[in-house]
Design brief:
The chain is mainly α and 105 residues long. 54% of the residues lie in helices and 6% in strands. The protein has 5 helices and 2 strands, in the order H-H-H-E-H-H-E. Helix 3 (23-35) packs across helix 5 (64-90) and helix 4 (50-56) crosses helix 5 (64-90). It is elongated. 30% of the residues are buried. Mean pLDDT is 80; it is low at 8-13.
């Protein structure tokens, strides 16, 4: 287990749901990468595609587009929060921290 999230959860794709349900865990994982020296962190949104969310059981036909949008927004918010916290703790440094993400329909 990493930060209380089992490998099975990650493989099932439910980890993207953690953006909404366990914000501090996602922000801490992002923070670990920043503390290790990463200048770019990715959004935790790789599963936030309507079809994939249906397959993983984290959305229904009726709400999958709304849910995908919600998870993508939350994933960016988690990454931004981690960068803000990191910069408060260690300063902004010379290189600007960035967020990378992708959305497919």
């Amino acid at each position: 287990k990493l930060r209380g999230i089992s490998d099975g959860t990650f493989i099932a794709g439910v980890l993207a749901n953690e953006n909404c349900t366990d914000k501090s865990t996602v922000e801490t994982i992002h923070g670990d990468y920043l503390a290790a020296g990463c200048d770019v962190i990715t959004t935790n949104s790789f599963v936030a595609v309507p079809q994939r969310m249906l397959e993983c059981g984290i959305a229904t036909e009726a709400d999958n587009n709304r849910r995908a949008s919600e998870l993508i927004r939350a994933s960016v918010d988690r990454a931004r929060a981690a960068i803000t916290k990191h910069e408060k703790e260690v300063g902004k440094g010379e290189k600007r921290k960035m967020i990378a993400g992708r959305y497919e329909t």
